[in-house]
């Protein structure tokens, strides 16, 4: 089967599955608030169940990238890595919540359990870095690097300002894992900046 034949395959929907994910997340949160579920395992499984929509969106996006042949290979690899990292993050976070209770003694095992979700977040940065290295189009690579730099400027600037405010007891403490979350939000800002400046947001990120 040639690349020309493959490229004519109908594109699979992606955005509707992301929409279903956000709707399911809200529905799960409302359901937990209205219910009397006390079992943390059941509660976590309910909150994690919308991940099936993310998996479907990722698989569809990978299939769409596969229709582009060698050009789409970096995007397909990127999406595959991001999907694996996402599942690892959710699974390890649920495990940590289930296995580590507040007040438990710190042990080597508890440290290992607690560190895995953080390492999964590191995996996101690794996947993005690999994509930038693998993509062949210099313009797309520039857009993604610019997008990452904007995200980095936003997250590190916010962390610096908030850190000094917190040090002088002007604001409450914020857990450090919120800064990578802000970085991912910054990717969206960077994509919008690319769209305004160059007419396109880039690829995948």
From TrEMBL:
Keywords: Membrane, Transmembrane, Transmembrane helix. The chain crosses the membrane at residues 14-35, 41-61, 82-100, 106-127, 148-165, 177-198. The keyword Transmembrane helix applies. The keyword Membrane applies. This is Uncharacterized protein. It comes from Sphingomicrobium clamense.
């Amino acid at each position: 089967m040639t690349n020309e034949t493959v490229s004519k395959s109908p594109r699979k929907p992606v955005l509707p599955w992301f929409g279903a994910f956000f709707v399911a997340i809200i529905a799960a949160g409302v359901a937990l608030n209205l219910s009397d579920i006390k079992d943390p395992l059941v509660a976590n499984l309910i909150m994690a169940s919308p991940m099936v929509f993310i998996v479907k969106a990722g698989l569809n996006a990978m299939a769409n990238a596969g229709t582009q042949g060698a050009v789409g290979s970096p995007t397909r690899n990127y999406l595959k890595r991001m999907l694996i990292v996402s599942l690892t993050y959710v699974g390890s976070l649920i495990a940590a919540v289930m296995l580590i209770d507040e007040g438990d003694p710190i042990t080597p095992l508890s440290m290992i359990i607690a560190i895995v979700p953080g390492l999964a977040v590191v995996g996101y940065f690794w996947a993005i870095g690999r994509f930038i290295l693998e993509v062949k189009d210099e313009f797309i690579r520039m857009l993604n690097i610019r997008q990452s730099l904007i995200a980095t400027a936003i997250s590190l600037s916010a962390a610096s300002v908030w850190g000094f405010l917190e040090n002088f007891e002007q604001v409450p403490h914020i857990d450090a894992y919120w800064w990578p979350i802000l970085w991912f939000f910054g990717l969206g800002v960077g994509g919008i900046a690319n769209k305004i400046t160059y007419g396109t947001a880039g690829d995948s990120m």
